[in-house]
Design a protein that fits this description.
By secondary structure, this protein is α/β, with parallel strands linked by helices. The protein has eight helices and eight strands, in the order βαβαβαββααβαββαα. The strands form two sheets. Strands 3-2-6-1-7-8 form a six-stranded mixed beta sheet, sandwiched between helices. The protein has a two-stranded antiparallel sheet with strand order 4-5. Helix 2 links the parallel strand 2 and strand 3. It is globular, with a radius of gyration of 18 Å.
Length: about 200
Amino acid sequence: MPAFDLFSIGHSNVPAGRFLAMLQDAGVNAIADVRSVPFSRFFPWFSQKALAALLKDAGIVYDLTGDTLGGRPRDENLYRDGVADYEAMAMQPEFRRSLDRLNDSAARWRICLLCAEREPLDCHRCLLVARRLAERGLIVGHILHDGTIEPHAATEQRLLALEGDVCDLFDARQHERLAAAYRHRARAVAFRQKVPTPRGVAENG
């Protein structure tokens, strides 16, 4: 197994005991919750207060970072046509400062980014946060629900395959092709603002 600097996981509908076991198997001792809304209606053990207590009992530190690393920005300028713009979000000073803190903390803790989506390629924890951490030289592992840990580099290869692309390591355009794949995937799965229905408009137009 590669020596990972940091992990990510999506809680989805995993039972609490199984969730803790996956973290413990990876040696995780700190959670950075990157959800903008740390609440789960259908799986309440993943709501902030319950989750923090669950992790504390297991000896795992909990930190909520969704205000700066979340996928639902409050700033209207960070949306393009109503869709969260990950590239613009990655340029924000508060986002970069949070990455700095994660980078520094990774030397002392076994940190795991937490969000809701089961599949890394459906989630900003991978397409936004892990991408930028990897660009800083950190080795990120995505904890999958079958218990395996997928290196972020392998996740990027899956991303390219989803785009119908096969990346040659010696291709001079590798960086541009990967950036385009990130951009396209983010556009497909990023948070979308709700468009209000105009009042007084007839149902059939």
